[in-house]
């Protein structure tokens, strides 16, 4: 079957009532209709669902959609059913169905009524389902939230690792569509590899959210008062306040309420009824603020969330981006305010201590990135986008002035000589060290690794002594963002020179360095965790 552009437009109008595709949607849909393996990377709210829903409705056969969350699947199925008069057009296949419901789903698929079948990855492992699906006409298989396949994503789910084998058993030639809102190059690579679709056509939308304002404040013992003040200044607006622990969620929700804010708590420890009630209150604007753990948010489609506050810094930049991304989805104002104290990082590190070593190393590497993000004084937008493998023009780019650092710039100074020194150390030590060892080498501090490579005996050992560790660490981060160095992910952060870095050593150029924020890390009286 072939479709032309008019077919696509009229299908969009007919099924969804929209008159135009957004961003890359049309190209993605064409790729799927061409039966190509397709990989879609779009930020949350970018309109990913439509990318597979529309071709599913247009194609012969049933599209299988793998999704990790049962609640989300239900919402999607209800939405599809509401635009079509045929109930069987979309189904969920999961363990909660009884025998007759399963029979109904199977009959609808066999009779060609069902266009979209949502399944959780664990249901797909059932022999009975695989055997059944093998005998059916399957149009394509969509893997939603495909980052769940990667340990480097923010939501690793081991069941996702089996998907490739199962897909093969259902049908070798079925096109696969992977979709995710996680844009780090490492996660992308993992997805393509694990789904066996290295030949996929890849569509990546920009991750820039120009309407979001990013701000980090030091976390002191007055954090609650500060949050109350902020919320009151924004009274009547919808907002989410994320806390790490359930206890803090309860306490802060109550404190806000006492202060006249219509706030409700939300966390996985509340019973399902209360959770649903609080979520509805937020959606229906009977509550302005939800104080929540990260259990809240996946699949919440409230376009006019005006602020997202992080009482505790999240465990990775992806999590920060996902959670702040719930603000301003309508394109309007969205203030993202996070409180940061290094003590919170230590706390997050402690949480990881019981986990397998590889997982700990990954967790640690991700934490280092969020520390760098919090402490940086360069454009926060540039920092985030660089993390996602995207260049950003900090002068003319969209939303360039939308963060605390850009609005209140710190003094810059010429650091050409220091940059050269640092790059030379990377070069002379043979590109084997992570940031910590490089900084130690510059400041003349040895450790076991440095001694084992005899770096402490080299003439350049201690050659950057006139600056302290913090200075050098800040410089490493800024050079990484500028692209003269890169961090090797496979090795959890070994620093390598880029081609630009190599030519900088030969002919150094001006490099204006901004010093990082210095947050009070050690004074226990002022830090609340
Ligand atoms: P994602 O899965 O990428 O987070 P969704 O698929 O939930 O995003 O889409 C976000 C919102 O955008 C939804 O409310 C959806 O109905 C809407 N949307 C998607 N495509 C279009 C379009 N072409 N025109 C108008 N609205 C759209």
UniProtKB/TrEMBL annotation:
Residues of the Helicase C-terminal domain: 222-379
Keyword Isomerase carried by entry: yes
One of the GO BP terms on file: DNA repair
UniProt entry keywords in alphabetical sequence: ATP-binding, DNA-binding, Helicase, Hydrolase, Isomerase, Metal-binding, Nucleotide-binding
EC numbers on record: 5.6.2.4
Domain (Helicase ATP-binding): residue spans on this chain: 29-201
Catalysed reactions, as listed in the record: Couples ATP hydrolysis with the unwinding of duplex DNA by translocating in the 3'-5' direction
Cofactor names: Zn(2+); Mg(2+)
GO function term, MF aspect, one: hydrolase activity
GO cellular component, one term: replisome
Family: Belongs to the helicase family. RecQ subfamily.
Protein name (record): ATP-dependent DNA helicase RecQ
Top-level taxonomy: Bacteria, Pseudomonadati, Bacteroidota, Flavobacteriia, Flavobacteriales
Part of the intact protein present: 1 to 529 of 734
């Amino acid at each position: 079957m072939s479709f032309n552009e008019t077919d696509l437009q009229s299908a969009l109008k007919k099924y969804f009532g929209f008159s135009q595709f957004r961003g890359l949607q049309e190209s993605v849909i064409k790729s799927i209709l061409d039966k190509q393996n397709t990989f879609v990377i779009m930020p949350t709210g970018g309109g990913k669902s439509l990318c597979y829903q529309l071709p599913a409705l247009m194609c012969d056969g049933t599209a299988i959609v793998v999704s990790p969350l049962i609640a989300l699947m239900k919402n999607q199925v209800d939405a599809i059913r509401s635009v079509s008069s045929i109930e069987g057009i979309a189904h969920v296949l999961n363990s909660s169905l009884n025998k007759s419901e399963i029979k109904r789903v199977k009959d609808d698929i066999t009779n060609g009524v069902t266009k979209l079948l949502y399944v959780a990855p664990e249901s797909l492992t059932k022999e009975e389902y695989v055997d059944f699906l093998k005998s059916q006409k399957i149009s394509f298989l969509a893997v939603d939230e495909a980052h769940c396949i990667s340990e480097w994503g923010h939501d690793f789910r081991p069941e996702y690792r089996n998907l490739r084998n199962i897909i093969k058993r259902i049908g070798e030639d079925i096109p696969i569509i992977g979709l995710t809102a996680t844009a780090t190059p490492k996660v992308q690579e993992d997805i393509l590899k694990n789904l066996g679709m290295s030949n996929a056509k890849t569509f990546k939308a920009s991750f820039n959210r120009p309407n979001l304002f990013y701000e980090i404040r030091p976390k002191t013992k007055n954090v609650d008062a500060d949050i109350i003040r902020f919320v009151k200044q924004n009274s009547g607006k919808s907002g989410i306040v994320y806390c790490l622990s359930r206890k803090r969620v309860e306490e802060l929700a109550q404190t806000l309420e006492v202060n006249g804010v219509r706030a409700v708590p939300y966390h996985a420890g509340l019973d399902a009824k209360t959770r649903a009630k609080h979520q509805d209150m937020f959606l229906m604007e009977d509550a302005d603020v939800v104080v929540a753990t990260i259990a809240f948010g996946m699949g919440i489609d409230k376009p006019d969330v005006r602020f997202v506050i992080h009482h505790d810094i999240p465990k990775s930049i992806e999590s920060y981006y996902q959670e702040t991304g719930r603000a301003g989805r309508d394109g309007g104002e969205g203030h993202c305010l996070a409180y940061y104290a290094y003590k919170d990082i230590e706390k997050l590190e402690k949480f990881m201590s019981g986990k397998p070593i590889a997982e700990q190393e990954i967790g640690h590497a991700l934490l280092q990135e969020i520390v760098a993000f919090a402490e940086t004084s360069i454009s926060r937008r540039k920092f985030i986008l660089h993390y996602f493998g995207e260049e950003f023009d900090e002068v003319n780019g969209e939303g360039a002035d939308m963060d605390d650092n850009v609005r209140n710039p710190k003094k810059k100074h010429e650091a050409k000589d220091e940059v050269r020194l640092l790059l030379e150390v990377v070069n002379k030590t043979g590109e084997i060290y992570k940031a910590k060892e490089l900084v130690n080498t510059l400041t003349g501090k040895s450790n076991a690794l440095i001694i084992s490579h005899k770096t402490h005996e080299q003439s350049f050992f201690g050659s950057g002594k006139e600056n302290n560790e913090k200075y050098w660490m800040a410089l490493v981060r800024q050079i990484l963002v500028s692209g003269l160095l890169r961090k090797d992910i496979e090795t959890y952060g070994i620093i390598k020179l880029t081609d630009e870095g190599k030519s900088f050593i030969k002919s150094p150029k001006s490099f204006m360095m901004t010093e990082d924020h210095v947050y009070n890390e050690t004074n226990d009286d002022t830090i609340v965790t």
